[in-house]
Design a protein that fits this description.
It contains 16 helices and two strands. By secondary structure, the protein is mainly alpha-helical. It has a two-stranded antiparallel ribbon with strand order 1-2.
Amino acid sequence: MRMLIVIILALAAATTIGLVSIDDPGLMVLSYGKHNVELPLVLALLFIAIAFAVLYLLFNFLFGVLRAPKKAKKWNEQRHNKNAQNDTLRGYARLIEGDWAQGEKDLVKRLGHCKTPMLNYLGAAYAAQQQQNYSQRDAYLAQAEKIDPANRMAIDITRARLLTQSGDFEAARSLLDTMHQHAPANKTILRLMADVFQQTQDWEAASAILPKLEKYKALPAEQVLALDMSVRSAQLSKAVPDADNPATATQYRKLPGRRKKDAHMAAMYARKLIEEGDLVTAEGVVRKAISAQWSSELALLYGQTRIQNLRRQISLAEGW
């Protein structure tokens, strides 16, 4: 492009000089010692223009030769970066397809030229886990943390998720507890903790984390409710009756009002009361729950309860 501009300018200059010198071509005298050379002005300017163009081309060529190694290095780097990007895209495509071995291979193939090495290591760690190669998974995670310590939280969340998926709940819980101390409002950490508590059936820990799950909206409302129901059900099922203060009644009284109206929860409570021999209290629980929401399970339990006015109880059941 620059060469074309130089040629155009040279032609324009030559044309201008030619037009100006039609009437008076002028004369240029070059003198060196005893030697003199006379040239028409137009011809002298033409020689000067040609000399300038030749020098320009020569210097441009020399500079091009000097810059060639740097340009070649840049071009080679761009080529490697492009190949690394293609490998990354291909690697994640293989992960989506479930080709774990090839996906892992593509993701770590050109890490030296990859712009997202941490993400590649995390993807490779996931692929290694799917092949049950846990030592290689941990090595990838360690490399990710080494090259990008600023994103340690994201790496540890990935590590906790993979540990949970592989069934190593003890290690996952230890890691999550540490992260939770530093980021108590992190929704992802809270969700992972809830998942670990559910899978290990640690309902006491699940109960303790429920308020935060609800406060920070870490889980949809229906999932929080389901977890709460699981916690309450576990507490009721494990309650041990006491002659003076039945544990079942104590646990049930702790339930929020909306939980007491749940048919499944009421059925579980009534069943425990029946096991403890408190048939009168069980009758009241079942009757109130059925009045709020019909349930075949509760109707079946109602036949196992008793009140003093048996005729009234039978009449009520017939009405249903």
